[in-house]
Design a protein that fits this description.
The protein has 1185 residues and is an all-alpha fold. It is built from 65 helices and no strands. Belongs to the Integrator subunit 2 family.
Length: 1185
């Protein structure tokens, strides 16, 4: 920024002293340098320190001594005496005022009407007004910056431009930021200062007085900076400000340059900092500028390469300016190039006053100490011209040719330099533009041919300059461009590299501890470039061998290597040759890795490490996922790579390996998270939430302590002993209990050998007189095994729990059978339905297989749809009347099948909840759950109950055995699973309730399934169905929901139901009216009990029903008129009914015999039921009062 050229900036010495609080160094500063740091020093002297040591007390005295002779200290002390809390309140009010006014500079709370200019006002003001003036101006600039949307502007401000008051304004600015940090974040203040003149000077002073904020300010300015800083005035001002900051703190210049590259902003700043950088020990081989620019253009980060190339291209479009960072860089590179030219060659010197021509020493060759630097410069210019599009000037082209044609010594570095020079000549022939230059190149090429044998013998390398030149000449003469490309490939050794790479030995015990450039890096780069498939070189065996030779901590290159390998298997190198792919790892090779995965091999140790097994597992899962994702492209190319068989996947202990990986997350890097992502996508049944919770119980601290207490010499039970104990039940119950208790102390991995014995004998536990503790212990062991081998365990358990008839037929289900039809799990022995520990296991398996079925059908549909559609399209060409089956139909069929599976599972489980005839005789009732949770039930919620009060005692009584019964426990387990299913997919709840289920289960489902309240969303739709059965079910369900969830939404749906009932009363025939209202009249009692405001609507409905029925009865010469009168009286004066009943809240009706009711006309029965319902409503309402 030229506007602050005459100002004194903070020196690097002073800034370092402030950073370290070096009082001795501060005392050595001159008065002008000390003046810039006064705001921080005064606050340091006046504020209470956190450091109470004696040394700081001495330093503080020295600081006070320093400040005692400075006159400006008094004004700063006066500034610090202001009430900053009140000032902040006024500032925030002004910000709100400006925000409401849309940013216009109208009325100000901080500053009243100015009588003079801002500078004069500042001069004549007291400290408080000076703070207000500066704060108002600064907030105005900050608001304008926030509203500018990134567009740069330069704000004209007297306060920041008057050189007379710059020191005082800087003091005020530093004090404001230090005392009001929440109002004035230092990064926002720094951004605002870029938009005023002398902003870089103010910024350096501000940061010098808060030295800890240096990195924060620099990162903020870089993040908000332009991608190309030299394109705009704002970018150049930002670059210059950051450059001044780095000159103030040169030790952080390289860190700031790294921030520039990380954010890909301000490329000119990175170059400028490199030009300013002066290392303590300069590298004689390569300069910092060459290293920095070469790293950007020749590095692996394509984003950085594109960003810096754009800087070079855009910089060339502007006129040549001496102030341009790009031209400064080019001048510096040219100076370095000329400096290493042979003295007899460097006769044409750049026009630079700093360079002094030296007399020619007659040396025509390149010095040996300059060869490496010359090679680096040639590579850099190749990158600048080839990647960044640099157009060399005549001067640069001339000096480059002089360097290329210089003759290096006969060393390996010299051979490398000659090769680079020749490649550069082939790549950029436009460098040769005059006859003199052509003659120079001919002489150099002749020298290459002549000196080839000498270079080969002296340097100890095979240069082959002559043969290469001869082949190039022949191919150019015959215009065989493809042969030239082939020659370049063979010269660079590409084909030789691929053939040699597969013979390179793998790295034994490869891990992240082995640093440096390894064979895996070479293979990875060749895989990415598709060199193996292009040249038909098989790399599968090398990759397999390397994966088998890995250990922890995992090397960072392994996962990218597997990803690149999978891509080379599925994606051809070119469309012209679709068969140019690598071969996948065979199934037998994969099985060899997992033969001893869940334990110890027969030789006493595990053959393959856990790292190898996890990497192979990642390869399989990632391969299958990428294969599914590429089905469309593969179908178009008529390619169908082989998928790994289900039999192979069944033999891999996926869950056990992932559990092992969970404890090795630090050593495995990102492999564990990648495996979890693949599992959640392809094997959702292995990622159940309850499984993760159970794992915490199995692998937590308490189980670990219990295993530590297990003596090493304790008795170990064999599988045959376990089998015998099961066979002798129930007499062997104590021995079996001891064995099972011992097994609970083992880890899940050690339990695997006992898995078959535990599951095979499960059916024996269904016999009577088996202790409950054995069942619960078996459930605990099963859950532990489920954490390491769920899929195999599930298959064994399903087969063990089959009914005895199926066991006799030796019908064995496979994993595939259970994924295709998950309902097989529920076709178990009926006794399981009343054995809660085993029922818990069955429900767990059912939930898992329902999820597995979804994933299985999704994969099956995806892997077959594209190939079938492609083949169908080919076969139907030219055949009319055979349209393709639309894809949406296949998807709809899949969704319909999944919905049918889920709803069938729910209906079966609900049927299990119904008590059997024996349980009904013992007094079991599904309504007991609702009674125990929500209090006493309304008396009329039972279908067809005409005498509710007479049955009150029966309903309130608990079933025999109390609440703790097998049926109750099974009901709770089933309700928990249904709750999870309804949450996971609310459409299941909707489908099940549209299908309907026994009304006797409604008390159980409403009380036991918390998520059933979602039924309130679709009950209106269910009421609109034409079938009376569905409407009756909807009203009965709603009555229980209103009792359980007395919410505003329930009230609105209840009003709708009453309205629907009134409408149906007018359209139903006599027979349908009786069948509709008889079961739903008791529901009105629940409506009124839950929502008393519905009393009038319900009473009106009951009177309408009574009038309709009475009118029909009257046509048959029956006298029912007194009923209507009684109903009207009850509606208008319910208290009168109580009074007439003797003051009791329990109303009674005349008892009617069964013969009277059973033989009565349906309308008469309905009339009596209406009257009974009316009385129940009044009784329940008054009882609630």
């Amino acid at each position: 920024m030229a506007d602050s050229a005459g100002l004194q900036f903070v020196s690097s010495y002073a800034f370092e002293a402030m950073q370290k609080v070096d009082v001795a160094s501060l005392a050595a500063l001159s008065d002008p340098e000390l003046r810039l740091l006064l705001p921080c020093l005064v606050r340091m002297a006046l504020c209470a320190p956190a450091d109470q040591s004696q040394s700081w007390a001495q330093d503080k005295k020295l600081i006070l001594r320093l400040l005692s002779g400075v006159e400006a200290v008094n004004s700063i002390v006066a500034l610090l005496s202001v009430d900053f809390h009140a000032l902040e309140q006024d500032a925030r009010k002004e910000q709100q005022l400006r925000h409401k006014a849309g940013g216009s500079n109208g009325e100000s709370i901080l500053v009243s009407q100015l009588q003079h200019g801002l500078t004069l006002e500042f001069e004549h003001s007291d400290p408080l007004r000076r703070l207000r003036l500066t704060l108002s101006e600064l907030l105005s600039i900050m608001n304008k910056v926030a509203d500018s949307n990134g567009e740069f502007f330069l704000k004209s401000s007297e306060l920041f431009e008057s050189h007379v008051y710059l020191d005082e304004v800087a003091d005020v600015l530093c004090i404001l930021q230090a005392e009001l940090p929440s109002l004035l974040p230092i990064v926002d203040v720094a951004e605002a200062l870029l938009h005023v003149r002398n902003g870089d000077w103010f910024l350096c002073l501000l940061v010098a007085n808060v030295p800890d904020s240096f990195n924060e300010v620099c990162r903020g300015l870089i993040k908000n900076g332009e991608r190309q800083d030299e394109e705009s005035v704002g970018g150049r001002r930002r670059t210059e400000a950051l450059r001044q900051l780095c000159q103030m703190n040169p030790s952080q210049a390289l860190n700031i340059r790294a921030m520039v590259v990380e954010e890909c902003h301000l490329p000119g700043l990175g170059v400028a900092l490199t030009l300013d950088y002066r290392p303590d020990t300069p590298d004689e081989a390569v300069s910092p500028l060459v290293s920095y620019v070469s790293g950007l253009l020749l590095g692996t980060n394509s984003k950085v390469r594109t960003w810096f190339s754009m800087f070079i291209r855009n910089g060339q479009q502007r006129k040549r300016e001496s102030s341009s960072v790009l031209w400064q860089m080019r001048r510096q590179l040219l100076l370095e190039l000329v400096a290493i030219l042979p003295r007899s060659r460097s006769t044409h010197m750049p026009n630079d006053g700093d360079m002094v021509e030296e007399a020619s020493a007659g040396y025509s060759g390149l010095r040996e100490e300059h060869v490496v630097k010359a090679s680096a410069l040639l590579r850099l210019y190749c990158a600048l011209m080839g990647i960044a599009g640099l157009r060399p000037t005549d001067e640069e082209a001339e000096q480059l040719l002089q360097l290329m044609t210089s003759r290096p010594p006969a060393t390996p570095a010299g051979v490398r330099f000659v090769s680079l020079s020749f490649c550069k000549l082939l790549a950029f022939p436009t460098l040769v533009s005059t006859p003199e230059q052509e003659q120079l190149m001919v002489m150099w090429l002749s020298w290459m041919i002549k000196e080839e044998e000498y270079f080969e013998s002296a340097a100890g390398v095979s240069a082959s300059f002559g043969e290469m030149l001869l082949l190039v000449a022949m191919y150019f003469h015959s215009n065989q461009l493809s042969s030239i490309i082939e020659l370049v490939c063979s010269t660079l050794g590409m084909k030789v590299v691929t053939a040699h790479a597969v013979r390179v030995a793998v790295t034994n015990n490869l891990s992240a501890n082995i640093t440096g450039f390894l064979p895996i890096h070479c293979i990875y780069q060749l895989l990415r470039s598709r060199a193996f498939t292009k040249h038909k070189v098989s790399i599968k065996d090398w990759i397999y061998r390397q994966l088998c030779e890995t250990t922890t901590p995992i090397h960072t290159q392994l996962i990218p290597l597997i990803d690149a390998y999978i891509n080379s298997i599925l994606t051809p190198a070119s469309k012209a040759n679709p068969e140019a792919t690598n071969q996948p790892i065979t199934e037998q090779e994969i099985l060899n890795v997992f033969q001893c995965s869940a334990g110890v091999s027969q030789g006493g140790r595990q053959r393959y490490s856990i790292t190898t097994q996890l990497l192979i597992l990642y390869y399989i899962l990632s391969y299958e996922e990428n294969l599914l994702a590429s089905t469309k492209q593969l179908a178009l190319m008529q390619r169908k790579p082989k998928s790994y068989s289900a039999a192979l996947m069944d033999q891999i202990p996926i869950k056990y390996l992932v559990t092992q990986a969970q404890g090795l997350q630090q050593e495995l890097g990102g492999l564990h998270s990648a495996l979890l992502r693949l599992l959640a996508t392809n094997y959702p049944h292995l990622c159940l939430v309850e499984d993760w919770v159970c794992e915490e119980e199995v692998t937590g601290t308490l189980p670990l302590l219990r295993r530590m207490m297990l003596p090493s010499n304790t008795c170990r039970y064999t599988q045959s002993q376990l089998h015998q104990a099961f066979q002798k039940l129930p007499s062997s119950s104590p021995r079996l209990m001891r064995i099972l208790e011992h097994l609970t102390l083992l880890s899940p991995g050690d339990l695997i050998p006992y898995a078959e014995g535990l599951t095979a004998s499960m059916a024996l536990l269904l016999e009577p007189a088996v202790p409950r503790r054995i069942l619960q212990t078996l459930n605990k062991l099963w859950m532990g095994l489920n954490t390491v081998m769920p899929r195999r365990l599930w298959v064994m358990t399903v087969n063990a729990l089959q009914p005895s008839a199926k066991l006799l037929r030796q019908q064995r289900y496979t994993q595939n059978d259970l994924m295709v039809d998950p309902l097989i799990v529920l076709r178990c022995d009926q006794r399981v339905y009343r054995c809660p520990p085993l029922m818990d296991i069955v429900l767990h398996m059912l939930n898992g297989y329902l999820l597995a079925s979804k994933a299985y059908l999704h994969c099956h549909l995806k892997e077959t749809a594209d190939f079938e559609r492609q083949s169908q399209t080919v076969s139907n060409l030219g055949v009319p009347g055979q349209p393709d089956t639309p894809e949406v139909t296949r998807e709809e069929l899949k969704n319909a099948l999944l919905s049918a599976q889920d709803s069938a599972a729910v209906q079966i489980l609900l049927e299990v909840c119904l008590p059997t005839s024996e349980e009904q005789q013992q007094g079991a009732s599904t309504e007991s759950l609702l009674s125990s949770i929500g209090g006493p039930l309304p008396e009329k919620l039972k279908q067809g109950s005409l005498g509710p009060r007479a049955r009150r005692g029966v309903e309130d009584a608990e079933p025999e055995g109390g609440l703790l019964s097998d049926l109750r426990e099974v009901q709770c387990l089933i309700c928990c699973l249904l709750h999870q299913m309804f949450i996971a997919d609310p459409n299941i709840a909707k489908l099940v309730h549209f299908q309907g289920y026994p009304q006797a289960l409604l008390p159980l489902t409403v009380a036991g399934i918390p998520s059933i309240h979602i039924c309130l969303d679709f009950i209106p739709e269910l009421l609109a169905q034409p079938q009376l059965e569905k409407q009756i079910f909807a009203i009965q369900l709603l009555s229980y929901l209103c009792t359980q969830y007395a919410l505003p939404k329930s009230l609105s749906v209840a009003r709708l139901a009453i309205s629907v009932m009134g409408t149906l009363l007018t359209v139903l025939t006599r027979a349908k009216r009786f069948s509709f209202f008889m079961p739903i009249l008791p529901c009105l009692v629940a409506f009124c009990q839950a929502f008393p405001p519905l009393y009038d609507d319900v009473a009106g409905l009951l009177i309408q029903v009574g009038q309709v029925c009475a009118s029909d009865v009257a046509t048959k010469a029956r006298d029912i008129d007194p009923l209507i009168a009684r109903l009207q009286y009850l509606k208008e004066k319910p208290q009168g009914a109580v009074a007439s009943g003797g003051g009791s809240s329990k109303l009674t009706l005349p008892q009617r015999t069964a013969e009277e009711l059973g033989g009565a006309d349906p309308d008469v029965q309905l009339c009596y039921c209406v009257e009974a319902t009316f009385m129940d409503i009044i009784s329940s309402t008054l009882h609630g009062l």
